[in-house]
Structures are given as C-alpha cells and as structure tokens.
C-alpha cells in the first residue's frame, strides 16, 4: 500500500498492528481482486454528486440529533445543507456549492423550504 509521497508502506502505520499482520494486509490488498475493487470504487466515487462531510453519520441521523437539540425548527433541508458543508460553513468544493444552491432554489420554488 502507498503511504506519504506515494511510497510503498512496508512498515505498520501504528504500534497496535504487528509486522506480520501488516504484511498479510499488504498482500491481501495487493491481490488482483482487491485492486480491481479499489479501482471500481474509485471510479464510483468520482461520480458522486456532492461531497458529504458528516463522516460516517448519515444525514437522517444528523437531522434527528439536531431536531432533538433544537426542536422542530431544524429542517431536513438544513440537515442536507449542513451535511455538505465544512465545519466553518464553507463548501468543500464548487461542485458541492453549486448543487446545494440548486437544492435550496428548487425547495424555495416549490415552497418546501421549511420541510
């Protein structure tokens, strides 16, 4: 596997992983099947429409947590927008900004802004 500067990582990334386990993982990740899977997943990710910034947390779970904190004033639209913004409130890229602005515009046109 490649580490910093695209160099092959032959050392485990942390002490909790033994050298034998790391070597086994590197061998497994280097199989034709896994390499094809990585390439397929990379290609699929390139087609994602907007960058999701909540990590492992889903938009639905984020929405539920915020409604518990803030009440019914927190909207599904707000959850969607928050899920595509960085912690500072910016968008991670222009493509995501464009999509979020279009979502807001369509919701306003259809008068579903406060869903």
> Beta-strand level of the residues, as a percent range?
under 5%
Q: Which whole number gives the mean pLDDT?
A: 85
Overall, the morphology is elongated
Which structural category do the helix and sheet elements fall into?
Answer: mainly alpha
- Helix/strand order, N-terminal first: HHHHH
User: Measured on Cα atoms, how large is the radius of gyration?
Assistant: 20 Å
Major beta sheet summary: none
How many structural units, i.e. domains? 2
Percent of residues in helices comes to: 40-55%
Individual helix count? 5
Low-confidence stretches: none
Total strand segments: 0
Report on the structure:
Pfam families: Transposase_24. Residues 43-62 are annotated as: Disordered. InterPro entries: Probable_transposase_24. With 115 residues, the chain is an all-alpha fold. The protein folds into two domains: 4-46, no CATH class; 59-109, no CATH class. It is built from five helices and no strands. It has helices spanning 19-29, 32-46, 59-70, 76-82, 94-109. Helix 3 crosses helix 4 (76-82). The longest helix has 16 residues, at 94-109. The termini are far apart. The mean pLDDT is 85.
